Amino acid sequence: MLLETASLTKRFGGVVAVNGVDLAVPEGQVFGLIGPNGAGKTTLINLISGHFRADGGAIRFANADVTRLPPHRLAKRGIARTFQAIRLFKGLTVLENVLVGRYVRSRPDVLASLVPFRDGGAAERAMARALLQRFGLGGRERALAGELSYGDQRRLEIARALAAEPRLLILDEPAAGMNPTESAALRVMLRELAAEGLTIILIEHDVRLVMGASERVAVLNFGRKIAEGTPTEIQADPAVREAYLGTADDG
Amino acid sequence: MDDLRAFFDAYQTTIGFIGINAILALSVWVTLYTGQLTLGNAAFMGIAAYTSALLTLKAQVPFPLALLCGSLLAGAISVPLGATVFRLRGVYLAIATLAFGEVVRVVILATPITGRGQGLVGIPPKTELWHIFASLLVIAYVCARLRISSVGRAWAAIREDEVAAASQGIPVHRYKLAAFVIGALIAGWAGGIAAHFNFAIQPDEYGFARAVQILVFAIVGGVPNVLGPILGAALLTALPAALQPLQEFRDILQGAILVLVIVYLPRGLSTVFDLRRSARLRRVGAQDVA
Fold first, then answer.
1. Chain B residues lying within 8 Å of A71, measured CB to CB
2. Is A46 on the interface with B (CB under 8 A)?
3. In chain B, which residues have their Cβ closer than 8 Å to the Cβ of A81?
4. B49-77: per-residue pLDDT in tens?
5. How far apart are CA A89 and CA A19, in angstroms?
6. Which of A64, A142, A237, A241 has a CA-to-CA distance to B220 between 20 and 30 Å?
7. Chain B closest CA to A164's CA: distance in Å?
8. pTM, full prediction
9. A226, A219 Cβ separation under 8 angstroms
10. Burial level of A5, CB count in 10 A (0-12/13-18/19+)?
11. How sure is the predictor about A106, in pLDDT bands with cuts at 50, 70 and 90?
């Protein structure tokens, strides 16, 4: 397992946003995470990426305990993510955004940068441009990130995350704001990335995308994991149907 | 040629202070470029001014060594200070660093060796114009190269979005602290140079007014590039001298020029050739400067 959580818990005041969740994400797979609004999906990945600190339980990544590590240390170990409310560096160019994403892979160049006329960034820029090509942003590298369309911003955020060459990529609703064509292209892209060995956790409301892209799916409701299995198993699960549609008695 | 010489002699002090103020403006540029509003650089300037002046005045330490000691002491004090105050953001950070400035002023007033309220006089006039402008050149060069290095990119990322910057693996706290310490070292260097240019120093020179003045140099000139703070310092230092003949109308005109710059060039004077980018930044709702 690349990532494991054991009885992971997070409270906000009296609300238990994530309640004793056990997850096991195998390497090289797309792992879907679904659940109704407020189920705790985003809180769960904020715990995994280090943006929140767990109140209980443990997180293991690549055979090491990473429960209390801050986000930048986790990024260095190979966890990259995107955000539900896109968090690009809006005032920087598209290319600069991806170059910042290269941070953990580039050598410090403070002293080298003081040498006159030296430009040590050519290799990094070439790599960043290749990534932008792959995400259909090749012609827009000089645009400001904030000038891009919504769908392009989502793709740029994924490109920025991949620039770090992570082992685990966490996507928080990557298809939000994308049209069906873009969403289908995203599904193909996710399958390609998994085939290259990348592990992906995918939070998504677009059920077709999750079911089509994921090997395994876990379902959260009120902070608890209520089901886990293959997309087919999940679709047939009565507890999942109840969480999404309510019980028959509710009318 | 004689005219030029006469001009230099007449305006030597103003020209020197343009350079010194430009260095000070660069000292606050480093933190502003990182998106952090700190107002402690007047105090760092004061710490270094007193340190270096006492060393040359009372201990006959060679001038360059005294300058270095002043700057390093300012830098050393900025480390624990920065580690503490960077838990704060925005206005709170500005207030905390201002409070530090007050503490420094009071400590100077309470310490006998500093001459207390009367300050120090008879500081050896070791600073020559070329010292000032050679320092400015080196400091501006270092800032400009840092800006386009991976360090500068990390600073810009922190300014744009701290949470996203941390997710890219950038140790945000460490980079903010580094910017703060570099700013303190630069301000300290300027303080030592200024003290030996002016022969006399007083604690009030390093208070609130100076802190705000340094900030205004940088903001008026513009933070997106290194040229901005230098331009801002040059304009705002030369303007009062140039407008001298206007007497009481001087302040009015100077105020009017400031307002015009802030209204029509909100990213600073130095962005006048880059108005398209300013418009684009406005459209995406991103601020290139604090």
1. 163, 166-167
2. no
3. 167
4. 999 999 999 999 999 999 999 999 999 99
5. 33
6. A142
7. 7
8. 0.92
9. yes
10. buried
11. confident
